[in-house]
Design brief:
InterPro entries: Endopep_inhib (IPR031841). It contains three helices and eight strands; from the N terminus they run αββααββββββ. It is an alpha+beta fold. It has a single domain, classed as Nuclear Transport Factor 2, Chain: A, CATH 3.10.450. The longest helix has 19 residues. The two termini are about 30 Å apart.
């Protein structure tokens, strides 16, 4: 978990980094290392993301265990030849860049905030308002929950 003093700018940077981690894993796949499973192409993830445990650990820098597991499930992976592969495809338009945020509640162990997310860091294009529940331990933060899960491929309920 990152250590920050929780100013609005630091919270915005924290949300920005957290919202990017799924893409960092997904986009790291080697499109030249392809396997075919049940008619779908899968690309091999690099060694640093070669197992479920490594990917979950990476997500856990910012996200709680429940959200990390949901994010992993939505990568739609397969494990072959001692390596993890992620399904190929287009994720569509996803608003993930925080343009601004408002802290709506704060206790010694929780921060509630609402962020306006956009697809563009320079304008409010395809914006969505997302509420977050963040756990606080000292100066360490961890996102425990966020709403708008079913409108975002990364956070949809897994079957």
């Amino acid at each position: 978990m990152p250590t920050i003093s929780q100013t609005p700018n630091e919270l915005q940077a924290f949300i920005a980094a957290a919202e990017k981690v799924w893409f960092e894993v997904y986009d790291s796949a080697d499109t030249r290392r392809v396997i075919r499973v049940d008619g779908a192409d899968y690309y091999r993830l690099p060694v640093r993301f070669s197992t479920r445990a490594k990917v979950i650990s990476y997500f856990r820098k910012y996200w709680g265990i429940t959200m990390s597991n949901i994010m992993f499930c939505n990568l739609k992976t397969v494990f072959r030849n001692n390596r993890l592969y992620v399904i190929s495809g287009d994720t569509g338009t996803i608003s993930f860049i925080p343009r601004r945020l408002t802290v709506t509640g704060r206790t010694s162990t929780r921060i509630r905030l609402t962020a306006v997310l956009s697809i563009d860091d320079m304008s409010d294009e395809d914006i969505v308002n997302v509420r977050y529940l963040i756990g606080v331990s000292g100066k360490r933060l961890l996102i425990l929950n966020r709403d708008q899960k079913n409108t975002d491929t990364r956070y949809q309920t897994c079957r």
